[in-house]
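Is this the right way to post structure tokens for a design question? Let me know if I should format differently. Anyway, here goes:
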């Protein structure tokens, strides 16, 4: 048995959807090498395999499991307090390959991380480093600061105080009177973000990186606004929700069309909106036409996540802390403006009757957004977008409604990625084993309609061995025999005659 075949068999079995727990547990053996790690990280796993991996003595196995997006996060909770800080950090940091839909961690895991007193028994990372991984992973729901603000543990209230502008006025007031002195101090510091005079007193030199962050996010005094206008440092004013009306009026006439675009949909824009609807820039005019439909910052945020992004946008899909009303989304779905219909199509709770209407929308971006965001998007739409828009293929393949049958017409498609999808269709009369592309042949070899006698041959070919080992029709005893040879290093490849 060549080393190449050994690795192919191991990888194939690791991702064989019909492999039972006792087969998969054998891949946790260190002799399985990378295949066991790939399995722990990259597929759904039976409960018995999860249990074995959670308490596995080899840290690399637990680290790989910590990055698994296919296992319910609640099952991974023990890893948040794993003896190894690196395991904790992997769970906090999220998956290696960032998906579009960012699955939030449950509150109990977040609480474990944010109240930890150490970074693990091995001392290789600190609790602060793990918390930093968590905060940059996008796994913390945007609504979590409001949950943390009323938590019994002061570390959670301290976390909330550092997310000051995410809190309600009542929560801010409560934190300012918190019984814990560290929380009170953080709350007082947070409150200065909305105090224009305090912001002015502490403002770094305009033009510096830190000043840019402050100018984009905090309440600004008239003097600071005037400085920005004089120095033409106006981008921060255009995106800052606290920018006063008189400054917005000046920005509406700014010579840079990009600045006018940034303010054209703001809900706090005054009579300048009508002026911008006559702007010489077409994009500014389009955005200004949307402005009468945008009355809140939640609505603005929903539109801002769509306008100008284009048909191949693959921005992360996350849950907002708060969102517009269902009635507003319904109004958007019926709008004459394509951008507003795209916004409606991006809302995953849009009612089924409106989904049915948008499926037939003449605007391609509406249909793309519906396919990528809505759980009721029909399979034929998902397939159409998969074929025509390669940028969305990785995401579409993760969706439960994505079709896996009825793909015969795609076997001859010019793109190998599409042919590979078709080659895996279990209703295909003859999977294309002679396709010139390796990925297509591998998918064909994994097709469950493959007869046992052909599987035997495919297991010995470098281009098909991995697919054949991943084939759900492969008998379980055969899987064990392949593993016997792979894990023992036996020189003779197993054959069908052994059964």
């Amino acid at each position: 048995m060549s080393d190449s075949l050994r690795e192919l068999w191991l990888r194939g079995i690791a991702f064989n959807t019909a492999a039972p727990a006792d087969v998969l547990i054998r891949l946790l053996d260190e002799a399985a090498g990378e295949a066991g790690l790939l399995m722990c990280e990259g597929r759904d796993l039976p409960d018995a395999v999860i249990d074995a991996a959670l308490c596995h003595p080899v840290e690399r196995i637990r680290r790989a499991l910590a990055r698994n997006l296919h296992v319910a996060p609640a099952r991974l909770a023990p890893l948040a307090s794993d003896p190894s800080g690196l395991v904790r950090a992997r769970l906090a940091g999220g998956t290696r390959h960032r998906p579009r839909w960012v699955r939030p961690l449950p509150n109990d895991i977040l609480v474990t991380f944010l109240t930890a007193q150490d970074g693990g028994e091995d001392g290789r990372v600190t609790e602060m480093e793990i918390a930093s991984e968590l905060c940059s992973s996008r796994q913390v729901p945007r609504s979590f600061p409001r949950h943390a603000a009323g938590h019994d543990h002061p570390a959670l209230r301290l976390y909330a105080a550092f997310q000051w502008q995410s809190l309600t006025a009542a929560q801010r007031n409560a934190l300012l009177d918190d019984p814990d002195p560290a929380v009170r101090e953080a709350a007082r510091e947070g409150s200065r973000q909305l105090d224009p005079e305090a912001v002015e007193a502490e403002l770094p030199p305009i033009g510096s990186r830190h000043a840019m962050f402050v100018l984009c996010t905090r309440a600004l005094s008239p003097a600071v606004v005037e400085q920005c206008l004089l120095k033409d440092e106006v981008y921060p004013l255009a995106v800052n929700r606290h920018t006063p009306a008189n400054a917005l009026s000046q920005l509406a006439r700014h010579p840079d069309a990009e600045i006018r675009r940034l303010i054209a949909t703001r809900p706090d824009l005054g009579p300048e909106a009508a002026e911008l609807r006559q702007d010489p820039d077409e994009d500014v005019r389009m955005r200004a036409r949307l402005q009468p439909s945008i009355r809140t910052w939640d609505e603005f945020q929903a539109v801002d996540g769509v306008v100008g992004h284009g048909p191949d946008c693959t921005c992360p899909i996350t849950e907002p802390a708060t969102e517009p009303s269902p009635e507003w989304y319904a109004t958007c779905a019926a709008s004459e403006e394509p951008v507003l219909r795209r916004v409606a199509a991006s809302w995953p709770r849009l009612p089924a009757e409106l989904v049915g209407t948008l499926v037939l929308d003449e605007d391609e971006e509406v249909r793309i957004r519906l396919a990528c965001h809505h759980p009721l998007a029909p399979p034929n739409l998902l397939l159409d977008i998969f074929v025509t828009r390669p940028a969305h293929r990785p995401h579409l393949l993760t969706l439960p409604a994505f079709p896996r049958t009825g793909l015969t017409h795609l076997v001859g498609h010019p793109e190998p990625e599409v042919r590979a999808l078709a080659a895996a269709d279990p209703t295909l009369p003859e999977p294309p084993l002679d396709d010139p592309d390796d990925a297509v042949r591998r998918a064909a070899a994994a097709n469950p309609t493959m007869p046992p006698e052909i599987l035997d041959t495919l297991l010995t070919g470098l281009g098909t061995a991995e697919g054949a080992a991943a084939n759900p029709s492969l008998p379980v005893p055969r899987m064990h025999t392949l593993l016997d040879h792979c894990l023992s290093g036996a020189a003779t490849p197993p054959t069908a005659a052994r059964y």
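Format looks fine. Someone answered above. Worth noting: The two ends are 18 Å apart (CA to CA). The CA atoms of residues 452 and 474 lie 7 Å apart.
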